[in-house]
Amino acid sequence: MKFFSRLFGIGVSLVVIACAQQRGIKGGEKDTTAPKVVQASLDSVSTNFHGTSIAMTFNEWVQIGNASEVVFTPSLNQPPLLKLRGKTVTLSWTDTLQRNTTYQVDFSKAISDVTENNFCSVNFVFSTGPDLDSLQIQGIVRDALTGAIPEKAVVVLYSDSLFGKIAYSQPLKNDGSFVFNYLPNALFKLAVLVDENGNGLWDENEKGAFQSNDVQPNDPNLIQPIKIQTAPQNITCVSLDEFVTDSLGTGFIVRKPGMNKSLRLAETEANRPFRYGALNDITDTLYFALGGEVTNDFVGVRMAYGATCIDTLSSFFSKRAELPEFKFHGRLQKNPDQILLIEAPCYSVLKAGAKAQVSFHGLQAEASIIETGSPLHFAVQLGAEKDELTGEIQVQILPGVFETAYGTSNDTLAFKGAFTPKEKLGSLLLEFEKFGSPYASCFVELRNEKMALVKQAPLSFAAMEFTDLLPGKYFIRVVWDENQNGQWDVNDLESKQVAEYTEIASTPITVKANWQMKVKL
Prior knowledge:
This protein is mainly beta. It has 1 helix and 44 strands. Strands 28-29-33-32-31-34-36 form a 7-stranded antiparallel β-sheet, with no helix packed on it.
């Protein structure tokens, strides 16, 4: 589903470029001075204006740049026309201006000199009545996951309904702020679009934000900036765009933010042997694989995502004489439920009752092998307390524990290693001072430098500790889990539900070995 279908067609009037562009002579000292307006047909701030054009003459030769940088708000039904003749630029329009309305025309980066591309920022504010509107809406926009300033973001005010008629729009400033000046005393709907591909639509793979309540302009001296967070939108269906194949030719669906529903087989294909991974906030990819003997190059699978049926997806199994071997993956974890990962060469099935032989603290024991939600990864689960996970350990897995989608199995797998000593790990003690109550509605995420989730825990006390951390830099994000489902819910445009609020510590926290870092938030 796509929204903002009229975002740039109406909110930002596109300007048609006409006439040849002037060319400057190269050579000499670099020109760093922007062109200056020496004469204009309209004062920069005017009232009782009923004209159909604005003309500006500059002190040097100029050129017309990107036409989309000219913003005329409130928007016109027909885009204005921009012409260049000599050193004079003229903006004209055919629409009849509304009565007693304040307009703003921002040329931004549409006009520059012909030598060094120095832009001339020219703005006009005029009213068709005797008075100028004087109210204001301002705010700050940040990314809800990283806390960064979104790039390519456009802020929009709607006059009637959310995603309806656009009244005002402007690109987000470099510092992440926006200000709408000279607004009337009226209610608006506000939204932000991070338009990555520049098509003027809120695509399902793009982030955005909106206010669920009306926004009221206020006196600039009294106004409080609105804090807005861009987030993905809830994905309502899955298409072939999310389906890719790996180096072996087996298929999987890449998880995207907003995919919060279950992927399942449609009822008409429920008799197919099939396995698929769980979809949650920790897994990056939703994998699926067909079980049993493969007789065809392509196998069609009818899928459903939530209540929406998906087009047929084809899982291709390449016919390879030999597959890569099963292997242990990653490092030992001080987590009894998952001390070690096993990586399969392709999509595989774990046989019932599979066990691993473990030599630990001089004793022989059995460990369980469990699924992780991905047919490419399995975990070794050891029945021990966390404090007991010290010293050396040996793990052996006998042949025949796994079966791949090609009908092959594993050979003997052996691992010998040691848990990271306590003195080489660090901990992080968080003390919360500024977060409101109830804490029961929040959970805390610990993310690494790549913003990948490391640990998550409910925020139920004023202080909490993350232990057994590898030295490195981490980020803290707190999620206000309003529905208490244990996951971050993103924008739902169908129900007009705003993404759950988050706060991110902007400065990374450095965890050191054998050291407890105390941080107040």
